[in-house]
């Protein structure tokens, strides 16, 4: 059976060749190995918010988290949100290139292994509001969470959290208004409470910028009884 499956895969690659989303070279996946090695580099980060820190501070929380601790307990970021990877995020979110989502999940899987990150008991994608979901046709966080759950052997609860308010997109809100914009936006589905109470919940999203969205969702999960909340984000926007 494995040999037969391998032959089918080789035939599929020959009939349906793919190219790297970054350099257009022929490759088996969404991004070729040289581009992966060049643009996905592990750096020292704050273990709580995943902002970059100096090598001497690796493993220590940054000053911002010490001054005002977010509701989430940890964040794992696959890469920085900068060129050219930022374009891949935009292609997934606004261009509907869903083939990129499994690669994002692979980057996170590798980061989990490299950092020996504490695995949660259940994964929860950041939910989209109904209007945005209808407009886009998919939730990019869910498209990432599905393969990530398989890679890590963790249960995925697709509707563990729901949007209680259909807020404006954070990208269109002034930075000093983002916390207020997202306040009260989430709720835990009553049927999913058993998945939350006393458990370690992993939250999956494509990009983390200010952290207010993930902070609000983590606070909602904590109020519902979550013992720990960890974020899994493909890209982290470096502080300006």
Automatic annotation (TrEMBL):
**Is Chaperone given among the entry's keywords?**
no
Domain Double zinc ribbon, by residue range, is 12-66
Q: Which UniProt keywords apply?
A: Glycosyltransferase, Signal, Transferase
In this protein, which residues make up the domain named Phosphoribosyltransferase? 141-235
The record, for Pfam families, names: DZR_2 (PF18912), Pribosyltran (PF00156)
Family per record: Belongs to the ComF/GntX family.
Q: Which residues form the signal peptide?
A: 1-26
What protein does this entry describe? Amidophosphoribosyltransferase
- Which terms does the record give in the GO molecular function aspect? glycosyltransferase activity
């Amino acid at each position: 059976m494995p040999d037969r499956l391998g032959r089918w895969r080789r035939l599929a690659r020959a009939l349906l060749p793919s190219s790297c989303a970054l350099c257009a070279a022929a490759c088996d996946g969404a991004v070729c190995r040289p581009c992966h090695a060049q643009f996905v580099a592990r750096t020292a980060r704050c273990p709580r918010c995943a902002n970059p820190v100096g090598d001497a501070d690796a493993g220590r929380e940054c000053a911002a988290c010490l001054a005002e601790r977010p509701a989430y307990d940890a964040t794992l970021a696959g890469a920085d949100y900068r060129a050219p990877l930022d374009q891949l995020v935009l292609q997934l979110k606004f261009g509907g290139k869903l083939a990129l989502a499994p690669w994002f999940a692979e980057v996170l899987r590798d980061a989990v292994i490299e950092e020996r990150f504490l695995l949660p008991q259940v994964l929860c994608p950041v939910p989209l509001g109904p209007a945005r979901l209808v407009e886009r046709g998919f939730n990019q966080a869910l498209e990432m969470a599905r393969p990530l759950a398989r890679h890590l052997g963790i249960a995925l609860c697709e509707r563990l959290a729901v949007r209680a308010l259909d807020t404006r997109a954070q990208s269109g809100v002034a930075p000093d208004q983002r916390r207020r914009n997202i306040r009260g936006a989430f709720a835990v589905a009553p049927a999913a409470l058993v998945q939350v109470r006393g458990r370690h919940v992993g939250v999956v999203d494509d990009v983390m910028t200010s952290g207010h969205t993930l902070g609000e969702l983590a606070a909602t999960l904590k109020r519902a009884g979550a013992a720990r909340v960890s974020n899994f984000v493909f890209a982290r926007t470096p502080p300006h």
